[in-house]
Each structure stands twice: as C-alpha cells, then as structure tokens.
Amino acid sequence: MNTDVIIVGAELDAFIASIRLQELGYTSRVLANGQGSYLYSSGNIKVLDFKENNNSDNKTFPFFIEGLPSAHPYKLIGKDNVKQAIEWFFNHQISNKLRYEYFETNTFTISPIGLKIPSYGLYFNQINFENIYNKDITIIKFQNQKDFHAELIAQSIKQYVNTIEILNVVQPDTNQHSDSSSLAISFDNLSSPDNYFFNINKKINKKTSVVIFPAVLGLNKYMEIIRCAEKTFSKKCFEAPTLPPSIPGIRLNKILEREVLKKNYIHRGSHILKANIENNKCLSVVDNFKRIIKARAFIFANGGILMGGIKVKSNGEIVEEIFDSKIQNNNHTKCEKSYETLNALQTSGVLTDNKLKPISNSNNQLENVFFTGRNLSNWNPSLELSGEGVSIASGWYSANNISSYLHD
Amino acid sequence: MIINSYQPTSEDILKSMDNCTKCGICNSYCPVSNVTNQFPGPKYSGPQTQRFRSLEDLVEISPELCNGCGVCTSVCPNEVAITDIITHAKSNLNNKNKKISFVQTLLNRPDTIGKLGNIFPALSNFILHNSFFRYFASQFFHLDSNAPLPNFHGKKFKKFLEKIKIDSNKKNIIYFSGCAVDNYDSEVGIAVIKLMSNLGYNVITNTDLCCSLPMLSSGEWDAAINRSKKLIKSLSRSLDLAEIIISTSTSCSLTIKKKYSAYLNFTDPKSAQISQSTKDICEYILEKHTDLLAKRMKPIDKKIFYHGPCQLRSHGIGQPAVELLRLIPKISLSLSEADCCGIGGTYGYVKGRNEISELIGRSLSEQIKFHKPDVILCDSETCRWNIEKNSGIKTLHPIQIILESLNV
C-alpha cells in the first residue's frame, strides 16, 4: 500500500492530478466512493463563459479570467498556471485519444436541449455551430431512445441552417434500447456497421450535407463507427449530446482511468472518515474498512456538497469534517432555508491559500493537504460554465505543488 | 449511513435505498442492462422497486436477471447497496413466490457435485464434456450447452496436503480453499501452499467447506443458513491457531467478509471475527511481503493479460494482484478494461442467460484478441473457466505466476 500521494475522489480533477503526478515521478492511489459524475458531462471542455458583446481583448483565454473575483480558484492558481494547465491537457495523449480540438476563444456547441453552449474544447466530431451554418441538415433519431430530443435541437438551430429534417431510424439491434449507454454498447457490438449505415443512407435526403447523430455511436469504437458513417453517406457526420447518461462523458472517464491505471491504483468503495494529523502534517487517512492509509501528501478532489467532500448537517451548517476547514458560501455558512441548499450546492467550498491548501477553523495550516475542483470556494461552475477548466487547472496545479513540497 | 463497512446487516442494506438520488449512474454501468432490455437495470430493480416490496409480495422476474457482479454498488456515489437490495429480492426467505429451478439447485451445490464427480474423475470428465450429455442436459435440465464447465481433478489437492509437515517455528495462517480448489482447481491450492510456505508460514487448510455463495446469490437462502453456520464454526475453530484466513476466490472471501451479515444477519462475535480476519491472498501478501517479493522475483518471459473480476471491486482494495505483478522485473502486463467477464458465478450456466453472459463478455474477448497474451490471469475461478473457454488461452490465478517468478 506504499504510495506517495492519496487522492480522494474520482472526478476530472482527481484523475488529472494523478496523471500529472505520474508525469512528475510520483505514485498515487485514488480512493473513491463511486464512479464520478462523468455521465452528466457532455464531454466538451468549458473553461469560462464570456459575453458575446464583450470587447475582443477579453475573448481570448486566459485573459478573460482577469475580471473574476480575487478569491476565485483561477485567481488563486494564477493566469499563467491556468494557461499552462489547459494547454498541458490539450497536448496530452488523453486529449489525443478523444481528438480534442481547442480554440483561441470559445466556440459554440449544442446542449442536449438545443441551447448554445460556449466551449473551449470539443471532442472528436462533436457538433459545433461553425459546422452547420447555412447547411442542409439531417438529424438522426433512434426509435425508442428516450434521452435525445431531436425536435428541441432542430428548433434551436433552424435559424442558422438552410434546411433541417429529422429522420427516424431503427436501432442497430432488436433490443429497443431506451437509454444512451445500452444504445452505445449496441453500436460497439454491431458486426457490420457499413450495412447498417447503408440502409440509413437510402432514407437520407440527397440535399443533406451534414448528418447529426445523438452522441451514442459506440462507447469504445466511436471513431471507427463515425468514419464508417461518413464514408457510407459521403457526408460530414457529427454527434450532439444526449441527456444523461452522456456517452462522451463516459468515454472521457474511461480514457482518464486507463491513463491512471498505467502505474497507479483506484480503490472504489473507499470512503474517508478521518485523518491523522501531527505537527500540521497529515500522516494518514482512515477509511470505512478501518484501514489506515499512509502517504506523503493528500489531495481532496471529492467534489463539494453533492459528492461528499463538504456536508450540510441537519441543522443547516455547512462543514468540511475531515480537516475542519473554513467554508465559504457567499458569506453564509448555514443553509437555514430549503432554497438555500441549491445555492450552497453551487457556491459552497473550502477556503484555501494560493497553493490550494485548506485554511482550517483552528488556523493551523496543513503542509501536505490540497483541495481541488468543486471542493474549492468562490466559483460557480453552473453560472460561469467553467467546470472542466477549474477541475483541470486545480488538479494539475495541486500535483505541481505536491511535487515542489515533496522535492523540498 | 456507511454501507461499505464490514458487516452491514440486512436492515442496513435495505435502508440504504433511501440514499438513492436517482442519478442513474448504476444503470449506465450495469453490464446486464447495457446488453439486454429484459433487465430494467439496477436502479429500477433495486432501490425503486424495493419501496413496493416492503408493502406486498411482488411477482417479478427482473431480480433473477441481475448477475450479481456488484458494479452498480461500486459506481454508486451515495453508498446504496444496490446489488444486495436486488439479491434480497431473490431470496426465498423474503419472497414466498420464489421458486428455484432444478438446474440452479444443482449449480448451488458445487461441493456435492465435486465429491460425486471426483469418485471417478476421468469418467465424470468424459460425461461432462460429451456433446450428447451437453445436449441432453441443455434440453432437460436447462444447463446451457455453452456453459464453461470445469474438469474434476480427483483427490490431487488433498493428496498434496497429506505431505505437508507442520513446523512449530513458523507462523500459522489459515487457507480457506473452497469447493473450487478442492474439486476443480487443485493447482491453485498447491500454489498457495508452496508460496505461503516459502514466505514462512504453516498453512492450515480448511477443505470440504463451501461458503454457499451460489445459494445466496440465486435466492436459496433457507438452505444456505445451515451450511454457512457450518463454515463459520469450522473457521472459528481454526482461528484458535492463527489470526488470518486467506482465500484465493474473490467471491468466496467477499461472502465471508460481507454477505453473511448482509443477507443472513450473522453478526455474532464469531462471525464478526471471521469477517474481519478474512483476506484476499494478494491483499495479504501485498500488505506483508511486498519488499521481500520485490527483491526475489525474477523476470518472466510471457505476455500477461490481467482481468480483475467484478467481485474484486466490492472488496474496496483496488487490484492487489496487479500491484504484486508489477514487482516482477520487466513484466509485460496489460490490463482488462472490462467490468465483468459476463459469467456472474453460476448465472451464465443457465439456458437463456448464457446469451446475456456472452454479450457482456464480448468487450473482454475483443481486448484479449487485441493483446494476444500468452497467459490470462484472474483471481476468480468461474471467470477463469469462462475466459479460457471463450479465448482458448490458458488462464491462471495471479499467485501461480508470482510463484513462477519466485522460482519455488
């Protein structure tokens, strides 16, 4: 069980930290209660929203983070580090596996209900508004699939395109899958995708130049399948996100896990209950199996209130229990009304210094503990559309800080 | 509520349904519902339907289609004991309408079948693997003609045990061999004795005992009670001589660690002591002998592929076998990315369910074809039999390769 770093959580920030630590020569062990919430991610990388009418100087990344409040995680991490972290992600082989494409500034993709979503990076063949302007579009709708709303997407994009039609098609097998995950696996198991697409091609309007599929074209073989569709149709094909479960999110999860497991380990079902601290150093953590797990440094990437890094007690008090860290929630530390819980979910987080080390209520500064992602305070991923960006930057930055700490 | 600790009771398991936030992550990762729409998925078959089960005796078939892999429980971020809730619904103690099929009754008694078959092992093997018998058994007993039946090994393991001498200067350790090693997998048992003796232990082996897992997972709980009590009694006597019980079967050790309390409410001090003393063999060796093995292991000139069985996830120990294998110098090791091989213990042996098993196992089969290993390692016996049958490649328990690397 010897390891340099324990990472608690299985979200994007946790895996990024593990992969970066591996690169810096340190081993890590990821302890996670569950799988992480990738099935809610559309797979695109959102770093921060900006308003379309802002002056052009603010549109390029990372300059537009300058307008954020001073305690925002991006501000703690620093503009140059954020830039390096995001570039590191897009140049890493994990991104190459999903063929992420990133831009000088935000581009627009489509949400599962057809909204325009500003994104900094898009995965392989993810729909981008740039690809559909003034084109003749066919949206494929699989019979019986419940979590893809072709009509909403058609309604949303019709003002930007030349013509649009929705084509109902049969699924690759006879199981009549209603959800995306089983439908994606039926594509992986499809023995002859060219025959399948050949039959669909007969029904596609000859005028069509772009075909949009729901993002379910395989969990593992998606590139092969999309290329097969493009070859059979002789048209450009894209994927548009579905409601959860989101297959692109699960693909990203698989690729991150594969990279982590090359040299490190993931323990599912391990729930951290307490930490053993001496002289401002965390020596070990204790999990629900009563195991004492030692390491030289610790990253808490266990995802804020919903995923258990931070808790709302029955009296409404918002707490981080393992280290008794200070909590910031828009100047409130309690959810006294039920409607405040939603606000707490979005905004509560642990106060840290600019190395992402938590500040405890007793004012003892821990040397070897770092908090990342949704555990951090002073940001709101839903309003800012910055979820993946802050996760990548804080995971990468905490790994760098650990490297400096262990090296010293 | 923390369910993943040692010894949750039936009440804890069923109460955990209230933790369900309906996020659907379990359905997205369920190997069964992802390949067939006959099974509605763990969310519906588990916590959602459980609310109605407490009100009336439901006539339902969906729990029978769960293969008990435990992936749903391990991916759940809110500690809902989903697999165990579904298994409770299968129980003939909880459900008056429950009927156990004849073939399942046979499969639930691998120890009895083993004893009978091992009277004349050569004859038994001839009959068992004869295509006429398989056709007959398929038509009349619903034993699937594609089921991966093992070979009877005669008294090979017991004869080996007779030669073992006790050295009073060595530390004692108990080996629970289980019905698989006793009857069908003698080489694994022999490897354990050789390895642990070499590491300085007297191995006290408890043979002729079955943990009753097939009965528990298929709902024949009334018959499982007395057999499980017999096992507890026997292991408890052995615990007077040693502190630790090791096991080479991931699912048997999981049953002793957690399932007796979760299903049969065995929470008495003896059962608790046995639960806490039982360890997976690789988990134990990793904890105690890593440094020694790292010094002594020699390279192995084989391309190795490791599949971590689904049941291993429920132990919450990561993949200790991989950690041990990585101590072998210059090892060529590739890791399975499949959550489940499909067989689910006795699940895939029954006609009608083998097709589902085959579909689940397809992803693993494709990975094996891609890596072209010389040998496949897996900690669980039924998974090994299934993988060997599907791939035609020799399968071993990881400790067999570790032993080879030590050149004992």
What report would you give on this structure?
Chain A has 408 residues and is of the alpha/beta class. Chain A has 2 domains: 5-105 and 250-407, FAD/NAD(P)-binding domain; 128-240, 3-Layer(aba) Sandwich (Rossmann fold), CATH 3.40.50. Helix content of chain A is 31%, strand content 21%. Chain A has helices at residues 12-23, 73-77, 79-91, 93-97, 150-157, 180-188, 193-201, 222-233, 247-260, 304-307, 338-347, 381-384, 387-407; strands spanning 5-8, 28-32, 101-110, 116-122, 136-142, 163-169, 210-214, 236-240, 265-268, 272-278, 281-287, 292-294, 297-300, 311-312, 318-319, 327-328, 349-350, 369-371. In chain A, α5 (150-157) links the parallel β5 (136-142) and β6 (163-169). Chain A is elongated. The model of chain A has no long low-confidence stretch (mean pLDDT 91). Chain B has helices spanning 10-15, 25-29, 42-53, 71-75, 82-90, 102-107, 110-117, 121-128, 131-141, 156-162, 178-183, 186-198, 213-218, 221-238, 250-264, 269-277, 281-296, 310-313, 320-325, 354-371, 381-391, 398-406; strands spanning 171-176, 201-206, 245-247, 278-280, 303-307, 332-335, 375-378, 395-396. Chain B has a 4-stranded parallel beta sheet, sandwiched between helices. Chain B has a 4-stranded parallel beta sheet with strand order 6-5-7-8. The model of chain B has no long low-confidence stretch (mean pLDDT 93). In chain B, β7 (375-378), α21 and β8 (395-396) form a beta-alpha-beta unit. By secondary structure, chain B is of the alpha/beta class. Helix content of chain B is 51%, strand content 8%. Among the domains of chain B are: 10-90, Orthogonal Bundle (Fumarate Reductase Iron-sulfur Protein, Chain B, domain 2), CATH 1.10.1060.10; 290-406, 3-Layer(aba) Sandwich (Rossmann fold). Chain B contains 22 helices and 8 strands.
